[in-house]
Amino acid sequence: MASFEMSNSVVGMSYFHALPSLISYGAGFDTQCYQSLLKGRGLLFADQQLMAEEKTARLVRAYASDFRIDFARATIKMSSLGVLTGSQGQVRWNCSLPFASS
């Protein structure tokens, strides 16, 4: 683990030692994640930005009570995408650019 530790923060803790205390919702991804956003305690700045616009804040409020049905639908939809793996897959250095075939 020592090879993964970053330099000490201002308070003298490494990022990886401090991270568990920063996570206000458990180790899982559940409604607690959204409830934390409602309290202004998003794990990342980008997470908390979901509350900045009414369009996404409305979804956060709805998912704070239950998001399982939408999550299940999205998972099923993603499973039908036919992702290429192994030697058929692609590794892109820049995901916004199409893969140049050789």
TrEMBL record:
Pfam families: peroxidase. Residues 29-99 form the Plant heme peroxidase family profile domain. GO terms for biological process: response to oxidative stress. Its cofactor is Ca(2+); heme b. InterPro entries: Haem_peroxidase (IPR002016), Haem_peroxidase_sf (IPR010255), Peroxidase_pln (IPR000823). One of its GO terms (molecular function) is lactoperoxidase activity. PROSITE patterns: PEROXIDASE_4. Ca(2+) binds at D30. Binds 2 calcium ions per subunit. It comes from the Eukaryota. It is an enzyme of class 1 (oxidoreductase). Its EC number is 1.11.1.7. It catalyses: 2 a phenolic donor + H2O2 = 2 a phenolic radical donor + 2 H2O. The keyword Calcium applies. Signal peptide: none annotated. Keywords: Calcium, Heme, Iron, Metal-binding, Oxidoreductase, Peroxidase. Belongs to the peroxidase family. This is peroxidase. It comes from Morella rubra.
